[in-house]
From TrEMBL:
Molecular function as annotated in GO: nucleic acid binding
Function: Involved in the transposition of the insertion sequence.
Domain of life assignment: Bacteria
NCBIfam families according to UniProt: transpos_IS3
Domain Integrase catalytic per the UniProt entry, residue ranges: 114-234
Annotated InterPro entries: HTH-like_dom, Integrase_cat-core, RNaseH-like_sf, RNaseH_sf, Transpos_IS3, Transposase_IS3/IS150/IS904
Swiss-Prot/TrEMBL GO biological process terms: DNA integration
The name this protein goes by in its record: Putative transposase for insertion sequence element IS986/IS6110
Pfam families: HTH_21 (PF13276), rve (PF00665)
Coiled-coil regions listed in the entry: none
Length: 310
């Protein structure tokens, strides 16, 4: 057949190629592809593992932490060949509504979200989750800027200030229980939403041992780290093809169960580029053991600081 096509090749050369065993690269590709398929292939219930949310960069980092010495380009090539890809973000609904009459705290952060230890800077924000009934449930987060660890969260069917205060108290209680209570120098940074500029929320912040800091109105970069965590939450946990929901979201309790599962996974298993693709909970334990981590170039702290023009 090859001779008829004008390919001048000896028969013994063809048969030698045909009898040749697979190369080491082919065998290694098959091994890595089988590992990747375990993440991206749905199980009997139609659910995938949370790691299926990863794109090539995070999947490569995840395999490295598991001790699998695979090149990043190999992961990219195999994922592309099999049609596997991470989730992508979508547009969001506006949830921040400023109160023009409220007095706001100064901006103590100035878009500098890189800190050298936990408890230096906490960022806060909230987002919405749409139920199958069309009703919104709102989820508030409080995040430690050192490693992106979620210290507190709360869900509510209204946008009153009590649920953002509940997340704050939860964060303060967690750090106190871990033996590292929030000091008077801890900064609590948020956007200019009316929930965070309210008198009740300001009292909660000060009673928890923090100094309030609020960014400018209508500028997402002033609270960019919190926006990133919320973006990951909406992309990884809320979407219909997410592995976290066990069924349709019908009530606030369904959202709470989903959020609890995602927060635990994000803190102790999920990869976050801010700290070398290391889970936030592991970064905290490394810090407690004397090992310091820092944000990578291209991670939220570096990128958003550059966009501030300073």
């Amino acid at each position: 057949m090859l001779s008829e096509r004008g390919c001048k090749i000896a028969p013994r050369t063809f048969y030698a190629w045909q009898a040749r065993p697979p190369s080491k690269r082919v065998l290694w590709d098959m091994t890595v592809a089988e590992i990747l398929a375990g993440y991206y292939t749905p199980d009997a219930d139609g659910r995938r593992k949370p790691e299926s949310l990863y794109g090539a960069a995070k999947m490569w980092a995840h395999l490295q932490r598991r001790g699998i010495p695979v090149a990043k380009c190999t992961v990219e090539r195999l994922m592309r060949a099999n049609g596997w890809q991470g989730v992508r973000r979508v547009k969001k609904v506006r949830t921040t509504v400023a109160d023009p009459a409220a007095q706001r705290a100064p901006d103590l952060v100035d878009r500098t979200f890189a800190v050298d230890a936990p408890n230096r800077l906490l960022v806060a924000d909230f987002t919405y989750v749409r139920l199958v009934t069309g009703v919104f449930v709102y989820t508030a987060f409080v995040v430690d800027a050192y490693a992106g660890r979620i210290l507190g969260w709360a869900c509510s069917t209204t946008k009153h200030s009590w649920f953002v205060e509940s997340a704050l108290r939860q964060a303060a209680a967690l750090r106190a229980r871990e033996g590292h209570p929030l000091a008077g120098s801890t900064i609590h940074h948020s956007d200019a939403g009316s929930q965070y500029t309210s008198v009740h929320c300001g009292e909660t912040i000060m009673l928890a041992g923090m100094k309030p800091s609020i960014g400018t109105v209508g500028d997402a970069y002033d609270n960019a780290l919190a926006e990133t965590i919320i973006g990951l939450y909406k992309t990884e946990a809320i979407r219909k093809d997410s592995p976290f929901p066990t069924g349709p979201l019908r009530s606030v309790h369904d959202v709470e169960h989903l959020t609890a599962d995602w927060v635990h996974w994000f803190g102790y298993a999920g990869d976050f580029r801010r700290v070398c693709c290391c889970p936030a909970g592991r970064a905290r334990m490394l810090w407690a053991g004397g090992c310091r981590v820092r944000a990578l170039p291209g991670s939220p702290s570096w990128r958003w600081r550059s966009s501030a023009g300073a």
